[in-house]
Structure formats: structure tokens, C-alpha cells
Design goal:
The complex is a heterodimer of chains A (about 220) and B (about 400). By secondary structure, chain A is an alpha/beta fold. In chain A, about 30% of the residues lie in helices and about 20% in strands. In chain A, strands 3-2-1-4-5-7-6 form a seven-stranded mixed sheet, with helices on both faces. Chain B has two domains: about 260 residues, Rossmann fold (3-Layer(aba) Sandwich); about 100 residues, Orthogonal Bundle (Rna Polymerase Sigma Factor, Chain: A), CATH 1.10.1740.110. The chains are: A alpha/beta (about 220), B alpha/beta (about 400).
């Protein structure tokens, strides 16, 4: 049985060629990896910290490693994966740049999906309401959010430039992933490489990145 | 007791598979020597299905045996060593799977070992028992599985020394295994592991009753040496934290009573007032004597000290290139006998050569022996891993 998956994951899946190998950081219950494995014959490995979620991965026949992403990817060799994916996880890490560096060491190409803290809705919350933003993309109160390194899409791009990370491609969505329903065709999702005012209007972005050394 | 428990396999019988007898091929060992008239003890639980596709082989640790679940008779007060894992409705569900637990050659729990009669001398082997490797143990087990007519095991599962055997199954009999689970184990002993085993062996060898291993017809046996060996071994199976929690600095007399001394300790060396941990270890040593043979302890500790997959194949990657099965490796955070880095080495090498491997370190303060204890995570891992195996091609 092949599950239907969210629009944002469908996009990521489309970015990946069949029959390659993929490492998914923070793979959860393995729904996405299972989809990749079954639809594109991709060799998949997931990393997950929650043991109950790992059980779900194992029972789907997936390879999964129980690990804390903040401890790096020492188990994996340089360039041992065609793609390394980090979706909706960057902002919960203690050392986000360290992990990006590790991803780029282990993966030939990396795909990072992040929610945009610069979206107009979050700006309104802080500017007019005087509250820490609580939106569809960031649905937490300040005291219980797992996100500890919030950033806007612009911030992410700036961090990439500063750290010698090349953005090969980028895709923006006007709605956050959780609002992208499974088979809702009425939801118009904007996917484009250059979106006017993206840092204000995009709720979520997907970046394809490589290290500078990998490109030269 | 066992009849009232719907999750117990109930009364089970130890069976013995005999091979390499008259007119049959002898078992050729790694050492070049041969072993004839071999007995291999085993137990089974559940039913083998028609296409023989639901068999799981369980492999035990250094001091374990084939009695992994249920009771051998109705007066047993303790069930088999992994009864919390094996039984109807348990992670290794005997309603679904046919479970085989095999003993090892060189041991003393029903399989051919140093206490058996050497047909050439008509005396017990003793120290003349040939050197046995973990590979030899698996060779004998392969005969048992062949005898069942099982072409492919759904899984081989082992902890500690059992994990070494599971690795050998996955490497040497790769087409015969669909899934491999390696728990709290290693691809080779560290110097520290060998060091502890050597202390144990020296305790046995220096016991005045050892008699060069020829003590079977004697009134006295190297009980004290074997006890000390067991005590030192047992320390490595626990952890600082688990010992602290269980025993702390509590004191009692060796007869088990609380000390009468108000301060709770004695300075008189002649008075056998002991810390509870001392009493516990002495008890472990004493009970071990009832079920284990000193020569077997030498044979088996030598086998695991010399186990070295990397050396045998050139390096670990070369060893694991042959692996076909899906593999699950589990370590325990407080295991200082085979710390997690041992497992990670296995996992890393397997990943390099494209083995379908999964890995988890279970957080616990229980030390190496944690794999024998009831644990929802180990249960969860085994259940989930086995669930997807039948579909694997």
C-alpha cells in the first residue's frame, strides 16, 4: 500500500531521482521514506530520536537509526548518500549550522525544508499584538515551542552564504506544510524559484543545497 | 503456575540433536581438528509452518543454555532466561513463530563439551577438548537447522556471545537468514574484555582442585576458581549505577541476616560481615558452580576472546559484504563490557557495504545484562523488526 503524502513531501520526492539512496533526518514514523522506497525504488535510511516512532519505521521495513541530530552524523561516511533531507527540523536544533555542515559532508545534495518566521502573519502578531507569534506554521506558545533557533527565509539564505553553502534551487509555499492537505486540489500551492516578496508571503520554503566544494 | 499463565509456553523439554556419528562426516573445526559423535542441546516453542518460513533461531550468551522460555518441569521456580520475550502474545510470539534455541558445542548444558567422554581415551576430554570458535558453534547449529529442513530462518537473534553467533550466521550462512538481530554484542573483544576473561581463567587454573582439568572423577572440583571467575564476570554485566541502586553500601552477615553491630560494620577481619554486594557476588559464584563446568568456562571464554570478524575476513566491510539479511543492532547506554562504540563499528561497516541495517542504543542504567531484563523498548524493537521480515524478498 502506498500512502498519500503531503504536497511539500511530494515536491521533495520529485526532486529525487529514482533508485538513489536517501537519508532522512528526523524521519518520524517513516511515511515519507516508505513512499520514496515504494514509488521510486530508493534505498532509504532514517534517523529518528523517538523510539516509538522508530518501531513504526521498522515495521514498515525501513532502515532507521536512533540518534540525536545534535550529536552529528558520525556514523555516516563522506558522500555516502545521494540526498540528505532535513524537513521542518532545522529550527529545533542546538547547532543548526553544524548539522548543515554534517549533512553536506554525508550527502552529495541536501534538501532543507523550513517554515518562515518572517511571514506576514508572524510579523503581525509581534508588531500589532505584541505577542510572540503563534501561527499555523509556528503553532506553539513561547514556553513550549520546540523551535529554539527561529529564522526567516532570508536569514536562512544569509546563513548559507556566510557558511559557504550554495543554494541550487528553492521553492516557496504560501501555506505551511500542515495546511497542505493530502489530496486537496483546491489548495493552490505556489511553487516557484523566485517569488516576489517571498520573505513576507511564503510560509514555507524548500531549499536544495550543496557545499561549495561539491560544486567546483 | 505455568498452566495458569496464558503468555507462557508452559512445560518444555530439552531435546538433543546428535550428529557426526558412525558413518557420518565429522565436524571439522577451525583449529583443523575434528569432532565426532556430537550432541547439540536445543529447545523449541510454537509450530513450524508448512513452508517452514516462520523459524527463529535464538542464540544464548556465555553462561546461558537452550532453555530460553517456559519451565522444564512443574517444580521449576524460574522460567527460561528470555521468558519475558518468548511466548504466546509476547514479542517472539509462539502463536506466529517457531522458536528454536540452540546451545553451543564446548558448553556444559547438554551439548558435547569437555565433560564428555573422548572416544579415543574413554575418559572425559577435560583440557584435551579441541579449541572451539564461535564459527564452530554456528557450524554445529547449521546442522541442526538443516535437520529441520529449514532453508531460510526468518531471523537469528542473539545477545552478547549470542550476538556474535548471530553475526556469524548472517555472514557465513547469508542465504539462510532473512533477519539478524545483534544485541549488546561486538565484532571482536576489546583488550578490556579479554583482560576480565583472563582473570576468570586464571582463577580457575590456579585453583588447587583444578587438577589440570581432569577433575571429573575426583571428589573435589575447582569450585572456588569457577566462583571467582563468575564473580568477576558478573561485575562486568552490571553497572556502577545499577549496583549502587540495588546494593549501595548496605551491609549484612554472610548468612543473610542484618548485622548486629550498631555502626553497621565490623573492623574485625575474622568476622564475616560483608557488604551486600559481596554477599550477592558470593551467591552468584556458588550457584554458578551448580550449573557450570570450569573447563567449559575456559573453552567458551577462549572462543569469544578469539572471535574477530575483521581479522578473519581482512576487515569488517569485507565480512559484511556477504550479508543478505536485514539487520538490527541494539546496544545499551550503560554497557561497559561491550560499550555502544562496538555496535556502532558494526553498523558503520554494514552501512558502507549497503547492508540494510538499523541501529538503536537503548538508554538504561542496567549495564550489559539489560538485554535479559523486561524492557518495553527491546520488546518494541523485536516486535516491529520481525513484523516486516516475512515480506522481505
Amino acid at each position: 500500500m502506498i500512502e498519500t503524502i503531503r504536497e511539500d513531501l511530494k515536491l521533495i520526492a520529485e526532486l529525487i531521482e529514482p533508485e538513489c539512496n536517501v537519508l532522512d533526518l528526523g524521519c518520524g514514523e517513516g511515511t515519507f521514506l516508505h513512499y520514496l522506497k515504494n514509488t521510486k525504488r530508493i534505498n532509504v535510511t532514517g534517523i529518528e530520536i523517538n523510539q516509538d516512532k522508530i518501531f513504526k519505521c521498522l515495521s514498515k521495513g525501513l532502515n532507521v537509526v536512533n540518534s540525536n541530530l545534535d550529536e552529528g552524523l558520525a556514523l555516516f561516511d563522506k558522500s555516502s548518500f545521494d540526498y540528505v533531507i532535513l524537513n521542518e527540523t532545522l529550527q529545533v536544533l542546538h547547532h543548526p549550522i553544524d548539522l548543515l555542515t554534517e549533512m553536506l559532508r554525508v550527502g552529495k545534495t541536501c534538501i532543507v525544508g523550513i517554515s518562515n518566521f518572517g511571514h506576514w502573519k508572524t510579523r503581525i502578531d509581534l508588531l500589532f499584538r505584541g505577542h510572540m507569534p503563534v501561527t499555523e506554521a509556528f503553532p506553539f506558545d513561547w514556553y513550549n515551542t520546540p523551535n529554539i533557533h527561529l529564522c526567516t527565509l532570508k536569514d536562512f539564505e544569509l546563513a548559507c552564504r556566510k557558511n559557504n553553502i550554495n543554494v541550487i534551487n528553492k521553492y516557496f509555499y504560501s501555506k505551511p506544510p500542515l495546511q497542505l492537505s493530502l489530496s486537496d486540489n483546491s489548495t493552490k500551492v505556489k511553487v516557484q524559484n523566485n517569488m516576489f516578496g517571498f520573505n513576507l508571503f511564503a510560509s514555507y520554503g524548500v531549499y536544495v543545497i550543496k557545499s561549495n566544494s561539491a560544486i567546483s | 503456575m505455568e498452566n495458569s499463565d496464558p503468555n507462557s509456553v508452559g512445560i518444555v523439554e530439552r531435546k538433543v540433536f546428535s550428529f557426526a556419528g558412525e558413518g557420518e562426516d565429522a565436524l571439522k573445526l577451525d583449529s583443523g581438528k575434528i569432532l565426532k559423535n556430537i550432541n547439540l542441546a536445543y529447545e523449541t516453542y510454537g509450530h513450524l509452518n508448512d513452508d517452514k518460513s516462520n523459524a527463529i533461531l535464538i542464540l544464548h550468551a556465555l553462561s546461558g543454555d537452550a532453555h530460553v522460555a517456559g519451565f522444564n518441569n512443574s517444580s521449576d521456580d524460574k522460567p527460561g532466561w528470555w521468558d519475558n520475550i518468548i511466548g504466546p502474545g509476547k514479542p517472539l510470539d509462539t502463536k506466529k513463530y517457531f522458536i528454536i534455541c540452540s546451545n553451543v558445542i564446548g558448553g556444559c548444558a547438554g551439548s558435547t563439551g569437555p565433560s564428555d567422554i573422548n572416544s579415543e581415551t574413554n575418559k572425559p576430554y577435560g583440557l584435551d577438548f579441541p579449541f572451539v570458535t564461535v564459527f564452530d558453534m554456528v557450524r554445529a547449529q547449521k546442522k541442526l537447522i538443516d535437520n529441520f529442513g529449514i532453508e531460510q530462518l526468518l531471523a537469528v537473534i542473539g545477545g552478547s556471545m549470542g550476538g556474535m553467533q548471530a553475526l556469524v550466521w548472517a555472514v557465513e550462512n547469508s542465504v539462510n537468514v532473512k533477519g539478524t538481530v545483534v544485541i549488546a554484542s561486538t565484532s571482536s573483544h576489546s583488550a578490556q574484555c579479554i583482560a576480565f576473561n583472563e582473570v576468570g581463567r586464571q582463577a580457575i587454573l590456579s585453583d588447587k582442585n583444578f587438577q589440570s582439568g581432569a577433575y571429573y572423577d575426583s571428589d573435589v572440583t575447582p569450585q572456588e576458581g569457577l566462583s571467582v571467575a563468575r564473580m568477576i564476570g558478573h561485575i562486568t554485566y552490571l553497572s556502577d549505577e545499577s549496583m549502587g541502586e540495588k546494593f549501595g553500601r548496605k551491609i549484612q552477615n554472610f548468612d543473610g541476616g542484618e548485622t548486629k553491630n550498631k555502626q553497621g560494620y565490623e573492623y574485625d577481619l575474622g568476622v564475616d560481615t560483608v557488604f551486600q554486594i559481596e554477599s550477592y557476588l558470593r551467591h552468584q559464584g556458588a550457584t554458578f558452580n551448580k550449573r557450570f563446568d570450569a573447563n567449559s568456562y575456559l573453552v567458551i571464554t577462549k572462543a569469544i576472546d578469539h572471535f574477530d570478524l575483521a581479522k578473519r575476513y581482512g576487515n569488517l566491510e569485507k565480512a559484511f559484504e556477504k550479508v543478505n539479511s536485514r539487520v538490527l543492532v541494539i546496544s545499551y547506554s550503560s554497557d561497559w563490557l561491550y560499550p555502544t562504540y562496538h555496535s556502532k563499528k558494526i553498523v558503520k561497516s554494514m552501512m558502507k557495504v549497503g547492508v540494510d541495517v538499523s541501529f538503536s542504543e537503548i538508554r538504561t542504567e542496567k549495564g550489559h545484562d539489560a538485554f535479559l531484563l523486561e524492557d518495553k523498548y527491546l520488546s518494541g524493537y523485536l516486535t516491529a523488526f520481525l513484523e516486516a521480515l516475512p515480506e522481505r524478498n
